[in-house]
Design a protein that fits this description.
The chain is mainly β. Helix content is 9%, strand content 43%. A 4-stranded antiparallel beta sheet has the order 1-24-23-22.
Length: 288
């Protein structure tokens, strides 16, 4: 079975955790203030059509274009690296959660491919080799293994770098009492999250044990995770975030300060990233 060969730099130095803590502390201080003191200040536009965006903890930006090319930009908006490979079909998922161990999933071939920070391929394997016929939700774990939802037996699973099973939730259709169809999975600060448009957000502990469910509010658009916050774009322009784990706080960026809705939305550090078919707009969260 193919191997994952991700770098261990952050694991050894703690750089990613430190960066996330500093950035999150800064933005949370801003957002803890009264809502009417917080605004979004546009700082730049990257004029590249984005089908998928992912932003790492250092605010490096990864864009998957309609032509299936991965392009990396640094936090200042300068292009760094490109990668293109059309022999594997369309990239359905790209995850930059780990800056030194990037993940792309090619659903047509049921294949996971990893990259280093320069977008040089470091490993790949087919989920068929791990006994998984189909998955629509897959991401890197905090220890550079893999979380995914196995659509054949309806379970959340964690695989190691060889594709061996490490953890499994059991049949979630039976545990939850109804079928689910998640399209997104992510690990944040010892919690694992599964989300589906019709299902809402399901929260698990680090051992894949179910904890709670957060429904997706009616009319919510482009749901995403910001640390442990479940965020979405509300009709009219407000970005609302509700903490999915204790202490269950929430914050919002007021409607009058939010830009027009676009096809993709992420937050990282004190920045908001809005993607569309024509480009990526980057905003900074600042006090008035």
């Amino acid at each position: 079975m193919g191997k994952f060969l991700g770098a261990d730099f952050c694991k050894k130095t703690g750089c990613r955790r430190a960066a996330v803590f500093v950035l999150f502390s800064f933005v949370f201080t801003l957002l803890s203030a009264q809502n009417d003191t917080v605004v979004l200040k546009k700082i730049r536009t990257i004029p590249l059509a984005a089908r998928i965006i992912s932003v790492d903890p250092f605010e490096n930006i990864f864009i998957v274009t309609p032509e299936n090319e991965i392009v990396k930009y640094d936090a200042g908006g300068r292009e760094q690296f490109r990668y293109s490979n059309n022999r594997l079909g369309e990239i359905s998922i790209f995850d930059a959660t780990s800056p030194f161990n990037l993940l792309a999933f090619f659903s047509e071939f049921n294949l996971v491919q990893t990259f280093d920070r320069t977008l040089s391929p470091t490993g790949e394997f087919r989920l068929f080799e791990a006994g998984i016929a189909q998955s629509g939700a897959i991401s890197i774990s905090s220890d550079n293994n893999i979380w995914l939802f196995d659509e054949a037996n309806f379970s959340l699973k964690k695989l190691d770098k060889e594709g061996r099973l490490l953890l499994e939730s059991g049949n979630l259709n039976l545990i939850l009492g109804h079928p689910i169809q998640p399209v997104f999975v992510a690990e944040r600060d010892n919690f694992v999250y599964l989300w589906g448009p019709a299902d809402g957000l399901y929260v698990f502990d680090i051992f894949a044990k179910f904890i709670r469910r957060l429904p997706t509010p009616e009319g919510a658009q482009s749901p995403f995770l910001f640390q442990n916050y479940f965020c979405h774009y509300r009709p009219g322009g407000a970005i609302f975030c509700e903490e999915a784990a204790p202490p269950f706080s929430s914050f919002s960026i007021p409607q009058k300060n939010a830009p027009a809705f676009s096809s993709g939305l992420q937050m990282q550090g004190n920045r908001v990233f809005l993607s569309s078919k024509t480009g990526l707009e980057i905003f900074e969260i600042v006090k008035k």
